[in-house]
Amino acid sequence: MSAACAAGVFAPLLAARSRAAALGDRLTLAVAGQGEMYHLPVLLAEQLGFFKAEGLDVVLRDFSAGALALQALQDGSVDVVSGSYEHTIRQQLNGYVLRSVVLHGRAPQIALGILPRMLPQYESVRDLAGKRIGVSAPGSSTHSFARWILAREGLNPQGATYVSMASATAAMAALRAGQIHALCHSDPIIAQAEQKQGLRVVVDARTIKASHELFGGTMPASCLYASQPFVHKRPDQVQALVNAMVHALKWLQTAEPADIVKALPASYLATDRPLYLAAFHRIRETFSPNGMMPDDAPAVALRALTLAYPELAATKVDLARTFSNDWVRKARQKFNV
């Protein structure tokens, strides 16, 4: 290999290493259910090398639910979380300021379905009072969504038993055994339950139109969030993270199914590739095209949370402290988004 050719081949790698050294230590990024489509942009950023291209050494840590990823952040065992925006609101009330730095999902990508053989006389959501509803974990976005659904119908949001279903395997087993009456989760778990266990979706927030009709505006969902001290002390790393995520979101806008298959680890598609791709096609539009937090979104989220958790009504939340679009604006300029 000639010296000129070698320089061309290795220059990008050396440049990335140089940037990594400048940006400091590796980052640990918690993902609240890595196999769920909710976090697809993060997985793509890692698999496509977008983190490395920004000079970052990112380690992904998978947690079975958003509440557990949040706990890891509070414990200091991770630096950043890919999780639900709602945590930035709820934790502010506990004196813990979290900030969303880039938005991935502009709809919850969650659905609630009932098992007809367990509820043969089902007529409306009101029939779920006193029943067992599977969610990813207490305190997670699926739990909040289920609570909100009950409260929206005038029911006590605590008037059902919420059962942790942290994985597709657990959810399918519980449905098969008749241990739960309903399941509130995201794809591909909901899609799998529909196909294999006869789940009937009765409340669906997996499209932009459905989500807007349910919430009366843009309901922000998956995002990257970190503690305020972290974003204050390590702004260069935050900007690099946001750059990588905006890059992934841009890539996702034009990717073909074959591109998704090629980018993802084989284990993600091994169970049922057609089912996964069909579910992706349904929710694709809900991924943000640019990472920006829409103007109406924080207030929509607060309104929904106040209904799901009535105790929040008596508190005051400074929504301006729960997110920032500053890093995204710079990333959009870089990638012409």
UniProtKB/TrEMBL annotation:
GO terms for cellular component: periplasmic space. Keywords: Signal. One of its GO terms (biological process) is alkanesulfonate transmembrane transport. Residues 39-255 form the Solute-binding protein family 3/N-terminal domain. It is found in: Periplasm. Its main location: periplasm. Belongs to the bacterial solute-binding protein SsuA/TauA family. This is NitT/TauT family transport system substrate-binding protein. The lineage of its organism: Bacteria, Pseudomonadati, Pseudomonadota, Betaproteobacteria, Burkholderiales.
